[in-house]
Amino acid sequence: MAENSVVGGLSFQPGLTPAATTSRAAVSMAGRPTFADDPKYYPSKNVWTTVCKTADLQPSSLKACFGAGQDLLIATDKGGRVFAAANVCPHIGTPLDQGTVEDGAIVCPLHRSAFDLKTGKLVGPWCPAPPLIGPLTGKLKSPRELQTFQARKQGNAVQVLLDVNAKKRFESNYWRGVLDSQGKVDGGYY
């Protein structure tokens, strides 16, 4: 065996020059926008999306559903007509699916704020319950409307008209890649 032969791959040996290697460019995301970073790449695209079956619904009831990346609430009135809203109370963000349907309104289970089935507008007082605490917590946020969506029965399915790009548009401002848990790939922080 020759004295200058390399055993075990590319090990360091004094006096030998390393073999020439091809250089590769490093990938840098700094300062360079990517496709997912810009909300303009996700235009509004409303699509009728099936969220549940009509058999799952009872008159004057609420059902939590999920469609196009959004948490939804399907409500029915006494006559069985369907309505759709965001399943989040505008007051403190709690789910509304444990609430009730009363007099054409969705009633929050925690603070008894009521929102019109069709428009989502506040009906009655803002955060009337529980006594003392409800009105105090109501002062933390000014009265707001509940977001509503168009809904319909299509055969045995309930469909809601949803923007299927809404979640992507929202997340494009936050998600930047694998290093997101430690900071943005471009070096920035939140």
Structural account:
The chain has 190 residues and is mostly beta strands. It has a domain at 47-176: Rieske Iron-sulfur Protein (3-layer Sandwich), CATH 2.102.10. The protein has two helices and eleven strands; from the N terminus they run ββββββββαβββα. It has helices spanning 133-138, 166-171, and strands at residues 46-53, 62-67, 70-76, 82-86, 100-102, 105-107, 114-116, 122-123, 148-149, 151-154, 157-163. Strands 2-3-4-9 form a four-stranded antiparallel β-sheet, with no helix packed on it. Strands 5-6-7-8 form a four-stranded antiparallel β-sheet, with no helix packed on it. Strands 1-11-10 form a three-stranded antiparallel β-sheet, with no helix packed on it. Strand 2 (62-67) and strand 3 form a beta hairpin. It is flat and about 45 Å long. Residues 5-12 and 25-31 have low confidence and may be disordered.
Explain the layout of strands and helices.
Blueprint: E1 46-53, E2 62-67, E3 70-76, E4 82-86, E5 100-102, E6 105-107, E7 114-116, E8 122-123, H1 133-138, E9 148-149, E10 151-154, E11 157-163, H2 166-171
Largest sheet: 4 strands, antiparallel
Q: Tell me the number of helical segments per DSSP (H or I, 4 or more residues long).
A: 2
Shape: flat
Any low-confidence stretches, pLDDT <50, length ≥5?
5-12, 25-31
Indicate the CATH architecture of the domain at 47-176.
3-layer Sandwich
Strand segment tally: 11
Beta-strand percentage range = 25-35%
Strand order of the largest sheet: 2-3-4-9
What distance lies between the first and last C-alpha atoms, to the nearest angstrom?
A: 60 Å
Q: What is the H/E order?
A: EEEEEEEEHEEEH
Question: What's the CATH first level of the domain at 47-176?
Answer: Mainly Beta
Radius of gyration in whole Å, from Cα? 28 Å
**CATH fold-level label of the domain at 47-176:** Rieske Iron-sulfur Protein
CATH superfamily of the domain at 47-176: Rieske [2Fe-2S] iron-sulphur domain
Percentage of residues assigned to helices = under 10%
Secondary structure class reads mainly beta
If you average the pLDDT, what whole number results? 82
